[in-house]
Write a structure and sequence with these properties.
The chain is mainly alpha-helical. About 25% of the residues are buried.
Length: about 150
């Protein structure tokens, strides 16, 4: 029987808590980026498999633990994405699709997204503004839909 007070047992218990804490948002991000449940599950599993050795080395703690989970999820989704040009109805490149998923999809605060994407907050704000403008321009280019009047 393993010693329940061993560092390995304690680390495993801590990693289980970490996995429970971040599995839902990591899965949500995977779904937003990959748009299919099976590949999103695969990316989520691969994320925590890749993070486990870092956890055992005590490399994940505090604020960096959350950022590490999202960064690894993005990396796994990038590997699994078959065609980056098809994301977000082909209007956005992959990097902008990731920024949109973090901001509009799982609604992380700007400082967290800035840390995950390793960019400054002003740079991130400018990027999100550009994305909104690009999406608005694409929306205005769509043909108008005739709606019958109420009367």
């Amino acid at each position: 029987m393993p010693d329940p007070l061993s560092p390995t047992a304690a680390a495993a218990a801590g990693f289980n808590h970490y996995t429970r804490q971040y599995s839902s948002p990591v899965y949500a991000l995977s779904c937003l980026l990959l748009e299919t449940g099976a590949r999103a599950e695969q990316a989520t599993t691969a994320t925590f498999v890749a993070l486990h050795p870092l956890w055992l080395k005590s490399s994940l703690s505090g604020d960096s633990a959350a950022a590490a989970a999202y960064r690894e999820c993005i990396r796994q989704c990038t590997v699994l994405a078959r065609d980056h040009s098809r994301c977000a109805a082909a209007l956005l490149n992959w990097d902008d699709h990731v920024a949109c998923a973090l901001w509009y999809g799982i609604q992380l605060p700007l400082p967290d997204i800035s840390q995950i994407l390793d960019c400054s907050i002003p740079e991130l704000k400018a990027r999100l503004r550009g994305i909104r403008e690009q999406m608005a321009a694409a929306h205005s280019a769509l043909p108008a839909v005739h709606r019958p009047s109420a009367g």
